User: What shape does this take?
Amino acid sequence: MKNVTGSFLSLGHWPSAESFRFNTDLFSTNLINLSVVFGLLIFFGKGVLSDLLDNRKGRILNTIRNSKELREGAMEQLEKARARLRKVEIEADQFRVNGYSEIERKKSTLIDSTSKTLEQLENSKNESLIFEQEKAINQVQQRVLQQALQRALGILNSSLNSELHLRTISANIGLLEARKKLTD
Assistant: This one.
C-alpha cells in the first residue's frame, strides 16, 4: 500500500509530472470526476434525497386530501345553499301569490265597505230629504189649517147670533145624551 500512496505523492515517477500543466482533455478528466461525484452523491445523498422526496410526496398528498375535503365541504355548502335558494324561491312565490290574493281580498273588502258606506249615506240623505219634506208639508198644513180656522171663526163670529148659538148648543147636548143612553 505504501507503493500506491507513494506513487501518488511522488511526482518524479510520472513522466508528465515534470512540468505541471493542465489537462485539456475535458472528456477523460470530467468523466472521472463526474463518476466520483455521482457515486458519492448516490451513496451519501440517497437517504437524504429519498427523505426529501418522501416529505414532498407526503405534503403533496396532504394538500390533495385537504383540497378534496375542502371541495367536498364546498360542494355540500353549495347544495345546502341551492336547497335554501329553492326554499326561499318557493316561499317568495307563496308570499307573492298570497300577497296578491290578500291585496285582492282587501281591495274587495274595501270596495264592499265603501259601497255600504255610500249606500248608508244615500239612505241617510233620502231620509233627511223625506223628513224635511214632511216637516215642510206639516208646516204648510198647520198654516193652512190655522188660516182656515181663523176664517171659520171669523165667519162663525160674524154670522152667529145668540139664537143660532143656543140651537147648536142644544143639538150638541142632545147628541151627548143619546150617546150616554146607548153606552148605558
Observations:
- The radius of gyration is 68 Å.
